[in-house]
Amino acid sequence: MYSIWMYISYYIRPLIKWFLRKTTGLCELQRICYGEKHGSVRIKGVENSLNLSRCPQIKLLVNHLNDVCDNQRFTASNEREILEGATRTVLWVKQINPQVHLQFVKSFSRCVEQIWGYRQLMTEVETLRTTSYDADNLDHERKLYELWNNLKPDEVLTSRVSKQWQDIGFQGDDPKTDFRGMGLLGLENLLFFAEEFKGPASHVLSHSLHPHYGYAFAIVGINITSMAWCLLRDGNAKTYFYNTCKSLPNIHHFHQFYCYLFYEFDRFWIECKPKNIMEFSDIRTKFEENIRASLLDPHGVFRINVSVDTV
Amino acid sequence: MSKNSNRVIYRRKIVLLLVGLDNAGKSVAVKGLAGEPLDTVMPTVGLSVTYLKYGSYSVKVFDLGGGPDIRGIWQRYFVDVHGVIFVVDSSDYHRLDEARDVLNDMLSHEKIRGKPILLLANKQDRQEALDELDIVEKLELEPLVNSRRCPTLVETCAATDKSRPDPGIQKGYHWLINFIIRNYPVLNTRVEQDVRQQRLEEQAERLEKIEKLRKFNEGARVDDDLIESYSDYDRKLNGSVVRDDSLDESKDIFYIRTDYINRGGSFSSSKSNDSFPCTYHTEERPKSAVQWVKNQLANSQSTLPFVGLLANKTTPVHLYGVHPQSASERRRQFVGSVRTQSAGARVPTVDGRSELFHLNNFHVPGTKENGTRWAERRKV
C-alpha cells in the first residue's frame, strides 16, 4: 500500500508542481516561503522540498550542506558565506530575480540556517554523548565540581569520592559511573540546568528529596537527557527548535530544551503521585508520549513556566 | 472461543529477579540476552522489565536499580520470582564487601530461601578483574548459599563484549531456566502461594488502614473549617499525635470572642472590619472563625444572594452585604457625573427651553444636579 502511494506521488508530484508553477509563476520554495509564517511549518516545508528535489544542482547543494554539518563546520564565522552560497544556487537554478523577490531571499536563507543548524546540532550532541566521562580530565572534573556548587551552594564537598553525591541523586560515592550511556552530555545538561535555571533547578531538587514522591535527581536527569537525545535524533524535536531558535541552533538550545523537559517531568511526576520509585519507567513512558503528542502541534513552543516556583 | 483459548494458554511464566550493586552491569546483561543495543544503557531508575522467551515458557526479568536508596524496595519483588540473577562487578573490589552484605541480606529473606541463584562475575574484560574463585571467596558464597539451601552457579562474563551475547551469561541463563523448569511445579506452587499470601496480607493491611482512618475520623468528627491551634500543630509536627484528647476538651481551639468586637476596641483585626455587623446571638460557642462568620451572615442578611456560590471564604464579610457594582454601572456613573459637570456649566437648569440657547450661552452658571444625565435633560 505504502509503496503504491510512493510510486504515485513520485510521478504526480512533479505534475502538480509544474501546474502550480505555470499558474502562479512561483516555484515551490517561493510558494512555501510566501505562504507560511516563519516557523516550523515553513522550515519543514522547505526541508521537505529540498530533500525531494530531483534537480542535480539542488541535490549537490543538499549533499554539500550535509557534509559541512556532519563535520561541524557550519559555524558563526562562515555562516554568512554558506547561506549566501546556498541561496545563490537556488536563485540561479530556479531562475528567481533577487531584486524582485527580496523577501524570498531573506526567508529562504533563514530556513537553510535552521535546517542545517539542526543537523549540525545532532552531530554536536552525538559527539558529546559518545565522549565518556573521564576522571583524569580536569575539565570534566571541574564541571562536576561546578554542578555540586550550583546545586548545593551552602554545602562544601568533603572529598571527590563522597557519600554526599547521593544527596543530589547519584547512585554511588563516585558519580563518574552514573554518566554511562549519555557520557558528557548528561553532565553538561545537568550543569546547564543548575547554572542557568537556578530557581527551577533547586525547586526540582527539593521535590526530588520529598519523603514520598522523591527520586534520584541526577540519574533521573540523565534519563531525561536520553529522552531529549531521542527526540532530537528522531526529528520530533524539530518543531521545538524551528519555532524557538532565532539564530543558528547550538548546544545551548538543546540544553534549554532539556531544562524544559526536566522541569515538566518533575511536575508530571509529582502530579502522578507515584507509590514509589518503581513506577518511574511507566511514568517516563507516559510523559514521553505526552511530549511527542505536543510536538506534533506545529506551533508548539515550550517555555519553562516558573510560576509555581514559590511553593 | 474455546479453541482460541486452548491455543493461547499454556505459555508458562517464569519470573526472574536481576539484582546487584549499581554499575555492576545488570541492564547490559539483560539487554544482551534480549539482543538489544547496548550503547545507550543508563543507570536504571526504579526497575525495567524485559520479556524473553524460552521454549514454551515466557520469561519476565525484573531488572531492579542497584542504588542504595532503592535496595529497600527489592524485597517486595522477592515473592514473585522463581530465581535470582545476582551481578557483581569483579573489577571493583572495594565494593565487594558491600556486595557481600547485600547478597547476604537478600538470601536471608525467607522468600528467597531455596530459590536458585545465578551469580555473574561481570566485567572480566578488564585487566584488574578478579576470577570466579576469588569472587566466591570474597563474597563468602559457599557457607552462605549452603546455609540458605540455594542452588547456585557462578559464571564469569563480560557483558559489554562485542561478541555478544556473552557465552558466560548464556550458559548461566540456560542453567537457571533449566533448573527452574525441572523444579517448576514445586517452585511455582510456592510462588503462587506466596503471592496469594502477600495479597491477603496487603488486603488485610488496607482494611486495617481504612478501619483506622474511619475510627480516627469518628473520634475527631469536627468541622472542616476548624482552625488548628498552634500547639496542636506543633505536637503533630513533633510526632506524638494526641489529637483526640485535645479535641475532646476543645480547650486549645482558637475562637473569636464576641465581646471584643462589640466593644470594637482591642481586637487585632478590628480596623479592617469597621462596618462589621455584630448581630451574633446564638447560644452555642462557635467552633471556628469561619463557622462564626457563617452564623453572622445567616443572622444578619437572610436574603443574601448566592451565598453558596461565593466560593471564596476569605472575602471580607462586609462585601457580602453590599451589592457589587458592575463595571458598566460604575462607568455610567462616572461618565454621568463628568457630563453633568461640563454640561451643567452650560445649561441653565431652570427652563431647558431650547438647545440653541445654551449652545450659545456658555457662561450661564447652572446649579448642578448630581447624577442627572444630559440625555434625560434633553428629554425634558
Itemize the secondary structure elements and their pairings.
The complex is a heterodimer of chains A (311) and B (380).
Chain A: H1 2-24, H2 28-35, H3 40-52, H4 56-70, H5 76-93, H6 102-130, H7 138-151, H8 183-196, H9 198-208, H10 217-234, H11 238-244, H12 251-272, H13 280-296
Helix pairs in contact in A: 2-3, 2-6, 3-6, 3-11, 4-5, 4-6, 5-6, 6-8, 7-8, 8-9, 8-10, 8-12, 9-12, 10-12, 12-13
Chain B: H1 2-8, E1 12-20, H2 26-34, E2 47-54, E3 57-64, E4 83-89, H3 96-108, E5 117-122, H4 132-139, H5 141-148, E6 152-156, H6 167-182, H7 184-219, H8 230-237, H9 243-249, H10 258-263, H11 289-300, H12 318-321, H13 327-346, H14 355-360, H15 374-379
Parallel strand pairs in B: 1-3, 1-4, 4-5, 5-6
Antiparallel strand pairs in B: 2-3
Helix pairs in contact in B: 3-5
Provide structural commentary.
By secondary structure, chain A is mainly alpha-helical. Chain A folds into 2 domains: 1-129, no CATH class; 133-296, no CATH class. Helices cover 67% and strands 0% of the residues of chain A. The longest helix of chain A has 29 residues, at 102-130. The N and C termini of chain A lie far apart (54 Å). In chain B, strand 2 and strand 3 (57-64) form a beta hairpin. Chain B has 380 residues and is α/β, with parallel strands linked by helices. Chain B has a domain at 12-201: Rossmann fold. The chains are: A mainly alpha (311), B alpha/beta (380). Chain A: Pfam families: ELMO_CED12. Chain A: InterPro entries: ELMO_dom, ELMO_domain-containing.
Task: Offer a quick outline of the entry.
Chain A: One of its GO terms (molecular function) is GTPase activator activity. The complex is a heterodimer of chains A (311) and B (380). Chain A has helices at residues 2-24, 28-35, 40-52, 56-70, 76-93, 102-130, 138-151, 183-196, 198-208, 217-234, 238-244, 251-272, 280-296.
- CATH superfamily descriptor of the domain at 12-201 in chain B: P-loop containing nucleotide triphosphate hydrolases
What is the alpha-carbon Rg of chain B in Å? Answer: 40 Å
Largest sheet of chain A: none
Secondary-structure element order of chain A, N to C:
HHHHHHHHHHHHH
CATH architecture type of the domain at 12-201 in chain B: 3-Layer(aba) Sandwich
The CATH class of the domain at 12-201 in chain B is Alpha Beta
Taking all residues together, what is the mean pLDDT of chain A? 89
Number of domains of chain A: 2
Q: Taking Cα atoms only, what radius of gyration of chain A do you get, to the nearest Å?
A: 23 Å
What fraction of the residues of chain A are assigned to beta strands by DSSP? Answer: under 5%
Helix content of chain B: 40-55%
How many extended strands of chain A? 0
Q: How many strand segments of chain B?
A: 6
What sort of overall outline of chain A do the alpha carbons produce when their principal axes are compared?
elongated
**End-to-end span of chain A in angstroms?**
54 Å
- Detail the poorly predicted runs of chain A: 307-311
Order of helices and strands of chain B: HEHEEEHEHHEHHHHHHHHHH
Largest sheet entry of chain B: 6 strands, mixed
